[in-house]
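Late entry, evening session. Most of the bench is empty. Finally got around to the prediction I had been postponing all week. Sequence below, unchanged from the version circulated by S.P.
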Amino acid sequence: MAKSARTDYHIHPDYSTDASPVKIYDYCLRALELGFTEICFTTHLELDPIQHCSPHDLTWLDSYFNEIVQAEKDFKASDLKVKAGIEVGYKKGLEKDIEKIVKEYPFDFVLGAIHRLNNISISSMKESPLYFRSRNLAKLRDDYFTTLEEAVKSGLFDSIAHIDIYRRYGIKHYGPDVLTVHRGVIEPIFKEMARKGIGLEINTSSRRRGLKEFHPSREIISLAAKAGIKVFTVGSDAHSLDELGDNIEEALTLLENFNLYNHVFTRRRAVPCLHKTIKNNRNGQPTDKTAASH
């Protein structure tokens, strides 16, 4: 199978409040050092007037885009493609606000995520015990997958991030049963994703938190492929410079093992991103010299 070009489609620069104070330009420099061909910044957007930010206070997005446009110019000669993305924390009832923002700004890639259940961050080491300790596994299953189904049906997102994020800290509270809580409920959601052309992210940040598998697990990736999902992205979920590109090669190999393709996005349109393998003839001469395809 063709070998995919190196991309990282989940990066948090200093515009994400939980990220290190690292500029977009510095991430681009590091990406070049690591041999990446394309990266996409996905700063957080959590539309929660009480906990996070109001949908009416988004002037910072203008600065964010200006920096990305400048980076595109600065690194054009070096063949590093720089894309403008965002990671939106989905919350029911805020669909119109999200839609307004993603239509108003020229995003290349809109990544959807479930970070909060019942206004508690299940992706936070500090907050997540407040949710997990007071709810059994059946309640988690109902809360999470109902929210995920709503996010998918909204049609607002190009791809879904770390789709089994509940494993991150839920494993400590529920044990191994949390690893199979998706069975019987995620399959119809994947079919809807496939129907809408929504992609699935392979997120490598799980390794930094001691988990053996990426988000999602191999079993879930297999179910996604069986349901007909074709679009996949890979992302390190970097919140600091040293996390950029973490385990991306292994994630790309994982996709290849499933005969699936990594993708890149331009103005919300997905394109498979790959290098075609150069085959040699009997005389040892290459017969296929095609380069990277975007």
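Two things to note before I forget:
The CA atoms of residues 95 and 154 lie 7 Å apart.
Residues 276-294 have pLDDT under 50 and may be disordered.
Will write this up properly tomorrow.
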